[in-house]
Amino acid sequence: MRLLHIIGSLDQRSGGPLRAVLDLSAMSEPLGLHCEVLGLGPVNIPDNPISPQSIHSLQSVAFTSYGYAPGLRQWCRNNLRRFDVVMLHGLWMYPNWAVSRECIDARVPYIVFPHGMLDLWSVQEQGSLSRIKKTMYWHLREKRVLRDCLALFFTMRRELENSSLTFKLPSCVKLVVSPYGTASPVSFLAAVPSAKVEQGQHLKIALFLGRVHPGKRADLLIKAWRASEVGPEWKLVIAGNGDQSYIASLNQLVHQLKLDDAIKFVGPVTGTDKQYLYQRASWFLLPSEHENFGIAAMEAVKYGCAIAISDQVYLADEMPEGSEILPVRIDAWSKFMRERMQNDIWQKQQARKVAEVLLRKFDHNEVAQNWIDTIEATIGC
Q1: Residue 39 to residue 95: CA distance in whole angstroms
Q2: Candidate from 124-128, 308-312, 375-379 with smallest mean pLDDT
Q3: For 231, left (φ over 0), alpha (ψ -120 to 50), or beta?
Q4: How far is Cα 306 from Cα 282, in angstroms, rounded to an integer?
Q5: Cα within 13 Å of Cα(108), Cβ side
């Protein structure tokens, strides 16, 4: 079976579903599912696990987030019939509309995977302008994209339920909670980091790794760190790409709170640097206001890192009772940092307990086979 993924960006620094798409493609290839990826803009995937020949890039019009690509429809007319099914990742962009229309003309079925972009938070809680634009676009185009698709895929039951509250979904479309996950178990090698991420061996590390976006609430971690008066043997490392003006505001906050020696921004990380930080960290911290899965948290678990995440990260639904699942409040996170984060025994217990549950549930072999089985069942193979 041949599957074509359509995704907005091929730059790993932009976050989003690209990492999961690549990992699922790599895991599925030995089981008979050949995947190719079509995206916009330059390819920037330092640790790409699939063949570079399977990744196709098209130029989009600059200075717009809509993702208009003049050559997209012609590419589809030349290539779509090579595939048994197409998967559209995300919402609210031109590629979904263009590729869905071309799929209909070519009689190639397509699946839509919103990746949380249909959730109430994504539509309603990112400002009035965003809400108005998405509501208008829903009625003009997106509703038709969903109406004509074979199925809607969701990563978690909570995402499916919340998405059903945002807009009235077409009744004719199948709603599927799909298998999801990251690459196979990691190898614990002696990762030699670059100077920008290396931390002294005497320090204990708490790690935030992901897109540095207001919704991820790195600002909450900074304020909670100040309120909890974490000891000088600890350092909070913030790794990831983001809007430079927002990152500058976070740096200013760090300076205002006199935390320059306690908090370090290292920018986007991949490969050995990323591996080093996961292995070096005692805790992975993710206080997001919304995460439809939590890929980075799952990666941290695979490296044996304890995780503390917000109750708005949907991966929390799969974690065992007694895990560090916190509300998005400074007082809750500062109490965790003050009373439990610095307890080595508690950290080891949490790392072991959460790993036992999540690594069993999201075993890479089972995820890959169930992913293929779900797609085949959806398209009627």
Answers
A1: 9
A2: 124-128
A3: beta
A4: 6
A5: 23
Count of H helices and E strands in the chain? 14, 13
In this structure, what DSSP letter does residue 193 have? -
Distance CA 4, CA 79 (A): 10
- What's the mean per-residue pLDDT of the chain? 91
Residue-level pLDDT at 139: 87
Residues 6+ apart with CB under 8 A from 121: 162, 215, 289, 290, 312
> Shortest CA distance to 197 belongs to which of 256, 279, 253?
279
What structural domains does the chain harbor? Answer: 2-182+363-379 (3.40.50.2000), 204-361 (3.40.50.2000)
Phi, psi (deg, nearest 5) at residue 242: -175, 180
Residue 285's contacts (CB-CB under 8 Å, 6 or more residues apart) are: 206, 207, 208, 221, 236, 307, 308, 309, 333
Whether pTM exceeds 0.85: yes
Interatomic CA distance for residues 30 and 48, integer angstroms: 16
C-alpha span between 216 and 205 (Å, rounded): 19
Q: How many CB atoms lie within 10 A of CB 74?
A: 12
Radius of gyration of the chain (CA): 21
Token pair of 191, please? 């990762």
Helix (H/G/I), strand (E/B), else coil: 144: helix
Pairwise CA distance, residues 35 & 342, whole Å: 44
Nearest CA to 204 out of 348, 37, 15 is that of 348
Residue 337: predicted pLDDT = 97
Which phi and psi (to 5°) does residue 180 adopt?
Answer: -155, 155
Selection from 210, 182, 279 nearest residue 13 by Cα: 210
Residue of 304, 124, 112, 295 whose CA lies nearest to 216 = 295
pLDDT for res 158 = 92
CB distance 242 to 214 below 8 Å: no
Tens digits of per-residue pLDDT, 213-245?
999 999 999 999 999 989 999 999 999 999 999
